[in-house]
Write a structure and sequence with these properties.
- The chain has 19 helices and 20 strands.
- A five-stranded parallel beta sheet has the order 2-1-3-6-7, sandwiched between helices.
- Helix 5 links the parallel strand 6 and strand 7.
- Helix 6 packs antiparallel against helix 7 and helix 18 packs across helix 19.
């Protein structure tokens, strides 16, 4: 192991010396501090690679160091506490701690944590290099955009990706929440293992438990063979749970148990299966409202929301609209072997539109106008783009097909309900799965 520097911050002199000895056996150089003030002086003098930090110190709480962005910028933190509780561990992880240890410190556990520190330090250097290199180009992994709101998102991703912490992504429909999850995975130490995505709103309540946890042959009608669930398929990698607020509330209890125990039990089985999965969740709804409405368990939300990332809507991303439009057009040209381009008027029109459907709507629109245009894409092709102006409802025009009327009604209802698909399905009197099937069809048609 490369020789790294560790700072042990602990007011108990005997325990501090004991931890320092264990850390040195793992190849680290060590320094010691018995208070917050002493720790600040040590970090300011030379930033250590890792700080092993007691949560309760004579002159304050250890978490104060984690809250100091200047001190915490170039250092990993592992908290130590004799008052083991989920709340204290989660609070530390939310502040940016890499991991936590309970006192008395177990040597095997400490060794695992320090090995993780060494790997994380190397990965952070790689991510930081990527971020600095691509920042000026407006790219971060597969994500596109150079606006200030997106730079903040990139910073958050680069901070959390090398850790094992759960991530909760919020944002309007079409803002790219799955792409954030994929980027977190690609920049993590799990990148060589599977990335698996499940849309919790697109699977019927009767099947989602089997999809998540798997089933044994004969466990229910139609279970003709044993099947691994998403947790097992994603073992070692990342599981993305989109629209988590649409998961049946009774299943959320089992999900929480699986996350806390690190194991799942297939339907029809009695023996648990160990799984090592990092979970990234997402919702286009306000989680607080979902909790209040009884759609999301509060304890599950706290378990998933260790590190929140909020995606800005496209209308708040300024120059990213044009950059994304050009990006999607370049992809189409590469795929189709064409060389189509937008006129200056078209670029200006693209930047002026509010894009209520966000990046997904923009992508579909670019594909549609690319099909309609010969070589040059003019502003007139964007004339039917939505302006998000309030209306009394979808117009019923004589001569329109029933499919057209149905599509307009579905999209207008979704717009009125701010993208709440479950509520829209209830209002329309159709099943949630039917709604998703219609939306997938519209997306395939470029609508």
């Amino acid at each position: 192991m490369t020789e790294l520097l560790a700072l042990i911050v602990e007011d108990d002199e005997d325990l501090r010396a004991s931890v320092a000895m264990l850390v040195e056996r793992e190849g680290f150089l060590t320094r010691q501090a018995d208070s917050l003030a002493a720790a600040r002086r040590e970090i300011e003098e030379q930033a250590p690679d890792v700080v092993l930090l007691d949560l309760v110190l004579p002159d304050g709480e250890g978490l104060e160091l984690l809250s100091d962005e200047e001190l915490a910028r170039d250092t990993e933190f592992v908290v130590m506490t004799g008052h083991v509780a989920v709340e204290s561990a989660v609070a530390a992880l939310r502040k940016g701690a890499l991991d936590y240890l309970s006192k008395p410190v177990d040597r095997a556990r400490l060794k695992t944590v320090l090995m993780n520190v060494a790997r994380t330090r190397g990965l952070r250097r790689d991510v930081s290099s990527l971020r600095d290199e691509l920042r000026g180009l407006g790219r971060f992994g597969e994500m596109v955009g150079r606006s200030a709101p997106m730079q903040q998102v990139y910073d958050l991703i680069s901070r959390v990706a090398p850790t094992q912490s759960s991530v909760f992504v919020t944002g309007e429909s079409g803002t790219g929440k799955e792409l954030v999850a994929q980027t977190v995975h690609n920049l993590s130490k799990r990148r060589d293992h599977p990335f698996v995505a499940l849309n919790c709103g697109a699977v019927s309540a009767s099947l989602i438990e089997s999809e998540l946890f798997g089933h044994e042959k004969g466990s229910f009608t139609g279970a003709d063979s044993r099947r691994q669930g998403y947790f097992e398929v994603a073992n070692g990698g990342t599981l993305f749970l989109d629209e988590i607020t649409e998961m049946p509330i009774e299943l959320q209890v089992k999900l929480l148990r699986a996350l806390e125990a690190g194991e799942v039990v297939r339907l029809g089985a009695t023996t648990p299966v160990d799984v090592d999965v990092r979970v990234v969740s997402a919702s286009n709804r306000d989680p607080a409202e979902a909790i209040e409405e009884g759609k999301l368990r509060e304890d599950l939300f706290y378990r998933l929301n260790v590190f929140p990332i909020a995606l800005p809507p496209l209308r708040e991303r300024g120059p990213d609209v044009l950059q994304l439009g050009e990006h999607f057009l370049n992809q189409i040209n590469a795929r189709e072997g064409s060389a189509k381009r937008m006129t200056e008027e078209a670029q200006r029109r693209l930047s002026e539109l509010p894009w209520p459907g966000n990046v997904r709507e923009l992508k579909n629109m670019i594909e549609r106008v690319a099909i309609l245009a010969d070589d040059e894409i003019g502003a007139e092709l964007f004339s039917d783009a939505p302006t998000h102006e309030p209306s009394a409802g979808p117009a019923l025009e004589v001569g329109r097909t029933i499919a057209d009327v149905e599509r307009n009604l579905i999209l207008a209802t979704l717009d009125d309900l701010d993208g709440d698909k479950k509520k829209a399905a209830e209002v329309l009197g159709i099943s949630l799965k039917t709604l998703y099937n219609r939306l997938n069809l519209y997306e395939a048609e470029g609508i």
